[in-house]
Amino acid sequence: MSDYIPQEVMTQILIRVPVKSLLRLRCVSKSWNSLISSAYFISLYNHQAFLTKPSTPDDKLLVRHYSKDQKTEVYTVHYDNEAFAVENGIKIGFPFRGLSRYYFRVVGFSNGLLCLSDDLFGYTNLIMFWNPLIRRKFTLPSPQAVFDKLGPFMFVLGFGFDVKNNDFKVVRIAYVQGSNGYNLPPKVEIFALSVGNWREIDVDVPENWVVEYFWTQAFVRGKVHWTAYRMNMERENGKENLIMLFDLSTEVFEELLLPDALVDESPVDLCTLACKDSVAVLHYDRRVWSGSCSIWLMQEYGNFKSWSNMYNVVCEGGLGIVLSFWKDGDILLTERNGELVSHDPRTQKSKHLEIWGTKDSSFVDTYSESLSLLIEGAKILPGLPSVSESDSSGEDNEREDEGVEKHELWIQSIMIQYLTALLNH
């Protein structure tokens, strides 16, 4: 039948077919396999997938947590509704067990691709792209700005899909540590999947702003957003906060002003979060052992005057991290004990979702699929050692459980002490 359909029409039909079906359709004929596996088709498919909004009843969420029982990361896909049921048709086996101390940092999830970095429990220069649906990975080469060349330094990563150039990019900002803090400006590198290597770029970082590596990104409108700070002796407390962002298409830094209520707060307690097509800022009462968090939303993206204090989240059992917004106004977050919960900020009531991790290991984002890495990536074997295959005793497992949570707390405490001392100095 396809012999009678022009290839242009066939292409427009196929770019709307789910990824799993496309992988099977490659077996129909050599011409279909050639088309679906071509760089041209994959580029069109990724562009279409990024621009197409999910249908309302079938939105799905990708959830990651660190399982203390299995001692590994666990990824599941859930329906974005009150039931939060697991999508049984999508199985994701984590194939990188043992490559990190406990678990990877999820830098971001964009257009079906995860960016993972092994920098939470000891930096190793290991950054990977991973397409969990088609089980392919791409390990990024080592960046140019490394310890052997710079000495002690701090870095931050940003990741997303550059829709204008149909490319996945990572931006890496490295701050060299000097005798009185960070040497500015930082070194900025870009990795583009289409190119396959890092390149240092000479761009103006706004007014010596600093982004600390433990802050999360918010990828919105093709731009990576972080909270940032700079020393400003004209202000009463000697510093000020704002949002620094990086446009992945133009490769230019920009600024967004914060509401006045957040400009002078401790930058340790702030971070960004995506909210539909705009950006939100989380203000924890304290970074470690949080009890509450205020959520500010820029209701009209780019309009400083549209900042609004949407919610104040209070958890009686202690707050871990705020992760995502739900359609009905609820918020997904972790409690201090590591359980994932749905929290209604209007009533301050929580619904326990029975997913247990550590309080900082959970990650949630809208689930999407793509053919990314079908050409560039290496095939990885599915599956994961089961708990029964572990040779650890129950006592060893208990020590391991304590280890990961103690390391989370220890690393956060060290970072906060250093930054606090730096700001006070």
Helix-strand blueprint:
Blueprint: H1 7-14, H2 19-25, H3 30-36, H4 39-51, E1 60-67, E2 72-79, E3 105-110, E4 113-117, E5 127-131, E6 136-139, H5 147-150, E7 153-162, E8 167-178, E9 181-192, E10 198-201, E11 218-220, E12 223-231, E13 239-247, E14 252-256, H6 260-263, E15 270-275, E16 278-284, E17 290-298, E18 307-325, E19 331-335, E20 339-344, E21 349-356, E22 363-366, E23 378-379, H7 394-424
Antiparallel strand pairs: 1-2, 1-22, 3-4, 4-5, 5-6, 6-23, 7-8, 8-9, 9-10, 11-12, 12-13, 13-14, 15-16, 16-17, 17-18, 18-19, 19-20, 20-21
Protein name: F-box/kelch-repeat protein At3g23880
Pfam family, one: FBA_1
Fold and architecture overview:
InterPro entries: F-box-assoc_dom_typ1, F-box-assoc_interact_dom, F-box-like_dom_sf, F-box_dom, SCF_F-box_component. This is F-box/kelch-repeat protein At3g23880. Pfam families: F-box, FBA_1. It comes from Coffea arabica (Arabian coffee). This protein has 425 residues and is of the alpha+beta class. It folds into 2 domains: 36 residues; 366 residues, Neuraminidase, CATH 2.120.10. The protein has 7 helices and 23 strands. A 7-stranded antiparallel β-sheet has the order 15-16-17-18-19-20-21, with no helix packed on it. A 5-stranded antiparallel β-sheet has the order 3-4-5-6-23, with no helix packed on it. Strands 7-8-9-10 form a 4-stranded antiparallel β-sheet, with no helix packed on it. The protein is globular and about 75 Å long. It starts with 6 loop residues before the first helix and ends with a helix.
